[in-house]
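Proteins fold reproducibly. Take a tokenised chain:

. . .
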Amino acid sequence: ISEISRKNVEVWGEKAGCVGYEIGGAQYQAGLIRGFDPAMIMMLGLPFNMPGHSLQRSQYVNGLAELTPEIRQELFNSTAEIVAARYRPDVGVGGKLVPWQPYNFHAGNFFDEATGYSPQDQTTAELLKAKCVPMPNWVFSAKFPLQALEKWTGRQIDLFSQAGLTLHQVRVKNPGQGRDWTAENVWAHVKTIVGVFKARGLPDPIVYLHNHDFNGMGGHIGAEVLRMAHAEKFTTLVVDAAYRKNGTHNDNTVLTAALSLAPEQRDALIEWNYNQQAIEEIICRFDSRTSQMTPWDSDWAGGTEGSDIRIAKEYGLDVRKINHAKEIANEVFPLERAVTPFSEYKLRLGIAIMIEDGIEPKNADTVRKWVNGGGKLKVGGDVLVGLKRWETLVPKTPEVGKLLANMPDELEAAMAQKSKLIGPADLPASLTTQQRHTALGYQQKGLEFATAQAKGTDLSPLLVAPHVLHSKPKSLRPGTAFEVLMDPTDATSRAQVQFSGFGTAPNGDITLTFLHEGQAVTIAMPDPDAVASGARAASGPRKAEAGNSNHLPTVVPGELLSYAVAIGDRLKAGAPLC
């Protein structure tokens, strides 16, 4: 869907006054899980007449594994080459800045005053070294002091100065919404940032604001902030918005009520909205916005409902209880304000509370009593490490230290575990720049995907045929025309195909006939209806079978991030496998 959404904004969004287009982030990771090339998703979304923005989670980039500086630098270099090739074919980076502006943010804006360590600052410097143009991102929470925002802004100015550049733009991101996202709070943050720039003798920065909208007020709050900016003659404020009645982000018609748009701009905005709504109706098979899980006043990260529902089902929990679980965990273990992977930690802490029979009733006081009485929680080692490191500006609660004290063996094992990360030296020399990007950024899953692409097993060629890709099985009409991507390194290399119709083979398989360059091509595949009952039993998360030596049971479901062993290794008792 990336390409046609991009074309819509390049034409009608630009005419309406849109000054940037966000692509990627969760889309890359979700795409990879479903069989699509993250590098191609990125290439298809890069706009030609406005800045291309994208999310990046500091040292985790867009995966869940914490990457080392060596891996990150090579990853950023390959990303820069991909983007440069899109805008400057046959030239590449060439020592010039690349028009790629990732929102580089980290949970809690963490900075260690004693050591000067900040994972966000490190990755911003690495992106600048790769010739990208990162957009420093302050994660909003009213619990974070404005004095910390002042220091953060100064550090970002210094990072750009050290790279020989002037910082021109910063972003404030509210991962959710919450009751504290008010026009007054937001404007206080903007004024704090601008004040640092003025004190440094720099021109006013462009300040981008981003939030989710769970109660219909997001657009109104954004409009009020724009009016406050107008009143103080601050003209470089940008507020993110999406189409009318989108359900998750600011309504752009409400937001732009505070702006003096020309009639042709308002007409263009309406046209963009109609088009985008029609485009997104195509992807209703994968739409989780009808979920009722997120309450109106939630400050939880937006866009997580789909994965939350999946995880709840894995545990056999009522999905209506997931938000309650997260709120309890947040009150006792406030990793404020959490974004992936830290939001995953709080989610898993919440689920651990829900599945622990010894914690009743399910509330914060009972959890505190359980932990202070020596109780443990069924969470993975990465959650314990996250609690130990506590990379946020909010003080650690006593229960954090007590839980870790209750689980010394689990914490020690987690701290000692060193699953092997995939680095530049581990990659086959035959990989393309795009495949190196995918392998380094998404580690084991990315490498497996990159090496399997030559077998033609990925779904990426259909990224430019959403009406085919997202249609219901066996519903495609004869005569439907579509394109397929032919080269994973070139988003412009395509073939024209026409679907001729379904048929039935003598053995009961379904036949599909396509027309390509005047030639009919027929393929056969098993009838999905005929095998549905058997496939249903074998699909989805599986539990380990008792007594099966080839199965490794775990206390809680999780996601495999990397392997600590290789084929042929002799295993040692007590040593980590993955």
In short: The two ends are 34 Å apart (CA to CA).
